[in-house]
């Protein structure tokens, strides 16, 4: 529970969530933006109390938005996952980094006749197709990629999108490297650079930062990052919800993506300790990112407001 | 040929190799240090004129040393490769980054009872074993690595060595990440950070910089680099050859490893354009590394001295 957090953290800039400031936060915020992994669920397991807390916030008339850096699913696939864990969320309340990658190409008028090579999973492929682009690659490209390598100059790859890929191999990395190094003007887009994530609720696994780091290593270039902490997706949120960012609160488990995204966008911020960040990470002298509020888990919002849920 | 290089490069700090300065270089240097990939061979194909040039240099009494960042082979395996392409080189004339990784652990008194997890190929495993260490992992670790992940706290991994691994996969990256992130004091050693290399003579492939970049991405740590441009190996060379570095000339095809290694060590330097560096890379305004001399290929030394070979 929130009260178990050590008092030493209070000396930092962040405030522990209390009954009083939770009420103030609820009074002043019209939309809550949630990260998913480590806030809503861990792998496929819903975190305790999340469902009731979301119901409570909806009952108060708050807009709920889900902003996830995990690119393995499309918005449609995320809506299905929410449904499977008993939470009703519509596709257009979900802003995933897979969607962000497709929107980046669309907004920047990427030519439809050019190909997009994907080091990543189904979510990116689906979002690219929905946006009218032609993806190559994806999770199960192994032997095909060897063939592709010999066809480099036949294929008009104009962008490489790199996200989390549990099926990463040398040939995928080779082809992505060749496209970026040898095709003039080829874009290098990263869905995100999360170091690790929770693919299951048992253990941390490499995040997209792994695959992105590999391609940085071979191309010696920095990617265009479209997921958090980049504020690229905020324009889409503002267009949909028409709420100023000062009346939004970003809730996340990660300092360098969620909280930084909230701060970069001008949102209020709440860090939860149900994911990858430990209290000691926040206190570490090397950490420069301090959320406005912090608490143990999302359900503290419910418990601290003494409501009937 | 050397004379075909554009005159514009001459405006930079580097001198094109000529008959005169080649003779001066030969007169003032007692040992030639060669990179292998892109200087001696490309993949398994010997570069034209290399064998005669090495014979010529030996006939002049020069010491020959081979300093390679390619960690896929051990010194013994490199000596075998030299033999297979018709060049006689002894093991102790070879200084590979696989050997460097093992020597780094030895010099730093790494405890023999601790394990070394390897993301890399046979060369690293063999050198670690020769130095008395216990490696885990290596190229063909796929299913085993899933099992290893569940045994993390049983295995006393005190160092992770990352080099070129053509069999890279998610589970290897996961295990390496866990060791560095969760085992207190676990060392993160990179054999080298070459972006690309020539595994065949046809095309560039990802170098160790790919796998090292991936682990940097998941651990957010910088590795200890033991290969070029680190001067770690120079102490071993000095001990063996007893020649001051000012009387050594480093010959390489790569600015950020070979030439920088030479300069960091106080050697003379010669860049050859038979590998990954193009003349345009040298001229690029962003390039800060300029060799003392440059030429098309190693055999120019032979051609420019009008010798009888």
UniProtKB/TrEMBL annotation, chains A, B:
One GO cellular component term noted in the UniProt record for this chain: chloroplast
SUPFAM superfamilies referenced in this protein's UniProt entry, alphabetically: HAD-like
Name of the protein described by the UniProt record: Phosphoglycolate phosphatase
Family in the record: Belongs to the HAD-like hydrolase superfamily. CbbY/CbbZ/Gph/YieH family.
Cofactor(s) this protein requires: Mg(2+)
Record flagged with keyword Hydrolase: yes
Keyword terms of this UniProt record: Acetylation, Chloroplast, Hydrolase, Magnesium, Membrane, Metal-binding, Phosphoprotein, Photorespiration, Plastid, Transit peptide, Transmembrane, Transmembrane helix
A GO BP annotation: photorespiration
Function: Photorespiratory enzyme that dephosphorylates the 2-phosphoglycolate produced by the RuBisCO oxygenation reaction.
GO terms assigned for molecular function: metal ion binding; phosphoglycolate phosphatase activity
Positions of substrate binding: 228
Location of this chain's protein in the cell: Plastid, Chloroplast
Binding site for Mg(2+): 35, 37, 253
Membrane-crossing residue ranges in chain numbering: 141-164
Location (main, coarse): plastid
Cofactor note: Divalent metal ions. Mg(2+) is the most effective.
Active site location: 35 (nucleophile), 37 (proton donor)
EC number(s) reported in the record: 3.1.3.18
Catalysed reactions, semicolon-separated: 2-phosphoglycolate + H2O = glycolate + phosphate
Organism: Salvia splendens
Enzyme class name: hydrolase
